[in-house]
Write a structure and sequence with these properties.
The chain has 196 residues and is an alpha+beta fold. The chain has a single domain, classed as Chemotaxis protein chec, CATH 3.40.1550. Helix content is 46%, strand content 30%. It is built from 6 helices and 8 strands. Strands 1, 2, 3, 4, 5, 6, 7 and 8 form an 8-stranded antiparallel sheet that branches. A hairpin with a 2-residue loop joins strand 7 and strand 8. Helix 1 crosses helix 4. The longest helix is centred in the first third of the chain and has 26 residues.
């Protein structure tokens, strides 16, 4: 596995920073509330380590998965712990755990993932299209095993972005993972002028 330099990680963090700002604006409009998404911590890790970094395999999470097509293929995954998912549903006026909650979280995931992908497009010029979101509520280990393992068969690398979100001063958090195809990270860095 390639070890990423601080300069390369800084470039990936900058992508995340731009994506966070776009995500905050989109969420603020959707929720009609003041939103602040913090600058995420960016890590490039083996897939197994990325999962361990997110949390315990038995932690119940809601995962929103979007496939990515075009110049960068792979998966984006947004993970909410149960209390954070419930809080966002409440802010949307949706009963947590209901059928409408799953749909609402899928839309939130769609907005956030698309924001991060939009940052990648604006900084790299890559042509990227997200697919429709799929949502699952299960233990973290089960989601990763059943969803990520299938889509990430060609790579063992995950870009992990931990984010804190403040909605009118109240804190929630989520984890964003980009699991690119084998050549995906190299292509991203090359487009940012950091190719080998």
């Amino acid at each position: 596995m390639k070890i990423y330099s601080e300069l390369e990680l800084d470039a990936l963090r900058e992508l995340a920073n731009i994506g966070s700002g776009t995500a905050a604006t989109a969420l603020s409009q959707m929720l009609a509330r003041s939103i602040d998404v913090s600058v995420p911590t960016a890590l490039a890790l083996p897939l197994a380590e990325a999962v361990e970094t997110v949390g315990d395999a038995e932690l119940v999470v809601t995962g929103v998965v979007l496939p990515v097509f075009g110049g960068l293929e792979g998966l984006t995954v947004l993970l909410f712990e149960e209390h954070d998912a419930n809080r966002i549903c409440e802010l949307l006026g949706v009963e947590p755990g209901s059928e409408f909650a799953i749909s609402a979280l899928a839309e939130i995931g769609n907005i956030l993932c698309s924001s991060y992908l939009g940052a990648i497009v604006s900084m790299t010029g890559l042509s990227i299209e997200p697919g429709p979101p799929q949502t699952a509520c299960d233990m973290l280990g089960a989601i990763v095993a059943s969803v990520l393992a299938v889509g990430a068969a060609s790579t063992d690398i995950a870009l992990l972005l931990d984010s804190d979100i403040r909605i009118e001063g109240e804190e929630s958090s989520f984890t964003f993972m980009l699991v690119p195809s084998a050549a995906g990270v190299a292509e991203l860095l090359a487009r940012l002028g950091l190719g080998a």
